[in-house]
Amino acid sequence: MDEEYDVIVLGTGLKECILSGLLSVDGLKVLHMDKNDYYGGESSSLNLIQLWKRFRGNDKPPEELGTSKEYNVDMIPKFAMANGTLVRVLIHTDVTKYLNFKAVDGSFVYNKGKIYKVPATDVEALKSPLMGLFEKRRARKFFLYVQDFEETDPKTHEGMDLNKITAKEFIAKYELEADTIDFIGHALALYTDDNYLNQPAMDFVKRVKLYAESLARFQAGSPYIYPMYGLGELPQAFARLSAVYGGTYMLNKPQCKVEFDENGKVVGVTSEGETAKCKKVVCDPSYLPDKVQKVGKVARAICIMSHPIPDTNDSHSAQVILPQKQLGRKSDMYLFCCSYSHNVAPKGKYIAFVSTEAKTDDPQTELKPGVDILGPVDEIFYETYDQFVPSHDSAADNCFISKSYDSTTHFESTVMDVLDMYSKITGKVVDLSVDLSAASATAEE
């Protein structure tokens, strides 16, 4: 313990594990500690007995649910975009060799009380029952523009400077209806609110293009992939990577106390009477509660079911986004479903999650629109958790704190936080121009 490290990472949540992997690959000397005796922190995966212990105390799970060890229930369920940032980080660090991914069967959007497949290309737009005949033609033109768009080729820009015009001005050119804009903005571009409409259109077009390219990648029903045996595999894969590059791991280290000098700069971490020296500390909000502020909370329901989500073409794995306007809310609601096809439950069992940004302390009432869509459930657990963001100046004290996980069921915002932290810690940018064919996933047979 009394060695000196470049960075000490506290907590083995996904963000912390990705960072310790990236920093170790960079040649930094990393010590990674966790007060828990398991990997994953907030983003761990639980078996049935652990799930019951967390939500129901000493009760035992009913036998008809199957054996405990066949369950891997993610506490922060998220899918990865096949061509998205997380996959690029996995390839950049060569972590893909530790993981097996499988394509997710379906991506859906809720509109006027019904569930529809999200159309993402000109061909799908023409087939989609989401839109009337004339709207389909307008949407087709929009999708063709996005598919052909290349940032470096002005011929594909049709005279528009997407860095100068807003997304709203860009969309107006296609005269799309409000409902169409709603599903494109929230279910394809994956914005969590409508502020994007007043931002430059470039980011919007790139996001829709990423969705369409990810969808084409494995020819599955969605642009998403998800690891076999659940997300608990990810922190462990990055932990292995860090160890390969000389990172040191210590689990079950109680009371990890961050030490500062008289100027308020971090100098080390003390646990069990020993202090490890370091230049920088990376951690989740629970380790430095006086340097974070609460910005909201997430409500979620975890459900065990014996059937897929209705109206999703019997998808064994699926995401359904319920845009805020459809529910008369200020934030979107997300449904996430996976099953025995990804080895996270016994055969015939499905695990579904409903999550949203909470406005009250009553998750049952807030999540009702999403839970109602699921149909009958065998078991349901409700909870809310607070969301924190750093409130200090990391340059002044050399502490780099991750943001709490949001309610979205995809990784884009999570990985952006990691890359932002990496740049602050190292002053460098991760090179994500990788050969995407290095990552493979199997589509549903």
TrEMBL record:
- A cellular component annotation (GO) from this entry: cytosol
Q: Which Pfam families match?
A: GDI
Q: Where are the transmembrane segments?
A: none
List the InterPro entries hit by this protein, alphabetically: FAD/NAD-bd_sf, GDP_dissociation_inhibitor, RabGDI
- GO-annotated molecular function: GTPase activator activity; Rab GDP-dissociation inhibitor activity
The domain of life for this entry's organism is: Eukaryota
Family note = Belongs to the Rab GDI family.
Name of the protein in its database record: Guanosine nucleotide diphosphate dissociation inhibitor
